[in-house]
Write a structure and sequence with these properties.
The chain is an alpha+beta fold. The chain is 16% helix and 32% strand.
């Protein structure tokens, strides 16, 4: 019986320890994304080197034989590709098509235009995704007679092959070669099994190895062909890793659609902001995604926010956690619709929509009759900066009362200026504020200096504002030494500091720009430089700012420690007990 009890106790401790493992050893929420916004270094296939970049397109892997004006059949913003593997076999022509387009017999000169090989390449083109075909540029093959116009997939000519000869791997699938398009006397050029140019009859069977020109103007993202984009979704974005190995493309395409209900949110690094969307393309592998670009246009964060498989998902809300090093003055948050089709397949996206992130604190200033405050209204202030307000009474008037964040401040907090003007300065601004000033005729003011408490809980010869029902406020004027007037002004909640927006303690602050889930520990009054924070530091700090060392986690941690110690002591005791019994 005692043995069974001991066994149950040990099992309980082990279970507690396993439960606490996620607390002791937290797991990163987002995997790395091998994706980038700009084209990586491209190595094209030439006769003077033996390596070249390869890309996946149309469900096939291709060698890059020209890029951006350099190489075979190349121009700006294009990439010329040659299939890495042969694409089946065919005769060049079956002898029944040895006629020109006008019906004239070709005789011994076999032309590519109208041949069986050309027909097979047209059929191969039709096996591509219809959207991918939009990104293939046509060309005219003018080195043959008659010319072949509007060719999307085409065989190399003899001269084109010579320009890249020596680096194309030998075809090991058999002794047959693969077709070129050049005519030579009674036959057609092929590349034989030892990688040299040879002749063969048009009626013999050889392999097909097409080339094409890819238009890069619609390339949106470049990722690694395998495992380039992780499978995780959520508000937290990843720092991308440069694409490597075989590449694949995410193309901008009209089939992808997304609209935003608002293009502005308020938030700081570490905040999670909510953004409403509509009109999203839905279906298999469809997502609403986000990216952050720096001032140079480089992709610095990327992630899929939400899967939208069904029609009902076309409208809704997504959350984005702004990185701790996010700086609205340099970084741009962009949302877009994206179809992520997995390894080896092209992805498609809608044009990204920039979301304006307001990372300023706001100070709302207003003045009653008898004077003015400058600046007035809502003023955006950068974190850590100072903001001074000038309180200027009209002729015959003077500053009466000044409320800062609903608290009547003492005259000693004001600085005298020209005439009867006063000034008040918010130093090293670390949150939003409000300031309200009232004026009175000089003849109505008491001769003695007012001494007003800065505490909302104490009384003074002036008065204080206290919370009432809902968003209402109650003003109490105590020890009234004279006749007084009271003025009330109102403003949009989004223009006021958080503390004055509502009377509850909710951490979610609503505004016409979306929702920002704030946490007081997610930022301070000093700006954060991206160079100061490594990716590990950011991940750890983001985790700490959101968890804040909650009681549940501390409890689980202590359970784990106590359980481990108890199990260890029991094993030591049991071993000693067995030794004594011997």
């Amino acid at each position: 019986m005692k043995y069974k009890i001991k066994k149950i106790v040990i099992l309980t401790f082990v279970i507690c320890f396993l439960v606490a493992i996620p607390v002791l050893f937290p797991v990163t929420a987002k995997a790395a994304e091998y994706v980038q916004s700009g084209m990586p270094a491209i190595s094209i296939m030439k006769s003077d080197h033996t390596t070249c970049t390869s890309v996946e397109f149309g469900g096939r892997e291709w060698y890059v034989i020209a890029y951006n004006g350099d190489g075979v059949v190349s121009e700006k913003e294009t990439m010329t590709l040659l299939t890495k593997e042969t694409q089946g076999t065919t005769v060049f022509d079956d002898g029944r098509n040895l006629y020109y387009n006008d019906g004239t017999p070709r005789g011994s000169n076999l032309a590519y235009n109208g041949s069986n090989l050309q027909s097979r390449l047209i059929k191969l083109l039709n096996s591509f995704d219809s959207r991918e075909k939009e990104f293939i540029k046509s060309r005219t093959l003018d080195d043959i007679h008659p010319k072949a116009v509007n060719q999307y997939l085409w065989p190399l000519s003899e001269m084109e092959y010579i320009n890249i000869h020596g680096v194309i791997p030998v075809d090991t699938t058999g002794c047959a070669g693969w077709w070129l398009r050049s005519e030579v006397g009674w036959g057609v050029d092929i590349i034989d099994y030892i990688n040299t140019i040879n002749l063969d009859k048009y009626s013999n069977v050889n392999y097909i190895r097409p080339a094409c020109i890819l238009d890069l103007s619609s390339v949106f993202l470049i990722s690694s062909d395998v495992g380039g984009k992780s499978n995780t979704t959520g508000a937290k974005l990843s720092e991308p890793v440069p694409a490597a190995g075989t590449l694949k493309f995410t193309f901008l395409n009209s089939t992808q659609q997304l609209s935003l209900k608002t293009n502005s949110v308020s938030g700081w690094g570490g905040d999670t902001v909510s953004i409403g969307y509509s009109g999203a393309t839905t279906g298999a592998n469809q997502y609403v995604s986000a990216m952050i670009m720096d001032e140079s246009g480089k992709l610095i964060y990327y992630g899929r926010l939400k899967s939208v498989p069904n029609a009902v998902d076309s409208e809704g809300t997504v959350q984005v956690t702004l990185p701790l090093d996010f700086d609205s003055s340099r970084d741009k948050l962009k949302l877009f619709s994206e179809q992520v089709n997995g390894d080896h397949l092209s992805d498609f996206a809608s044009p990204p929509i920039t979301v304006n992130v307001d990372s300023h604190y706001k100070i709302f200033a207003t003045a009653g009759s008898g004077g003015s405050i400058s600046p007035s209204g809502s003023t955006a202030v950068n974190p850590g900066e100072n903001q001074t307000y000038i309180l200027t009474p009209d002729q015959g008037c003077a500053v009466d009362e000044v409320f800062v964040d609903d608290v009547l401040i003492d005259d000693s907090a004001l600085t005298s200026g020209d005439g009867n003007s006063k000034s008040y300065t918010f130093s090293e601004v670390g949150k939003s504020h409000s300031i309200i000033v009232t004026f009175a005729k000089q003849s109505d003011l008491p001769g003695a200096t007012r001494t007003n408490s800065s505490s909302p809980d104490s009384t003074s010869s002036g008065g204080v504002l206290t919370n009432g029902d809902g968003n209402s406020k109650l003003y109490t004027s105590s020890e009234v030494p004279k006749d007084r007037s009271i003025m009330t002004t109102f403003a949009e909640q989004s223009d006021l500091p958080e503390a004055t927006r509502t009377n509850d303690s909710s951490s979610e602050v609503a505004s016409p720009y979306g929702t920002s889930s704030k946490n007081s520990s997610s930022f301070d009054d000093t700006s954060v430089s991206r160079s100061m924070l490594s990716s590990q530091t950011l991940s750890s700090a983001a985790s700490n700012s959101k968890t804040g060392g909650s009681g549940t986690q501390i409890f689980l941690t202590w359970i784990a420690v106590i359980s481990s110690a108890a199990v260890l002591l029991f094993l030591i005791f049991r071993k000693r007990h067995l030794h004594i019994n011997r």
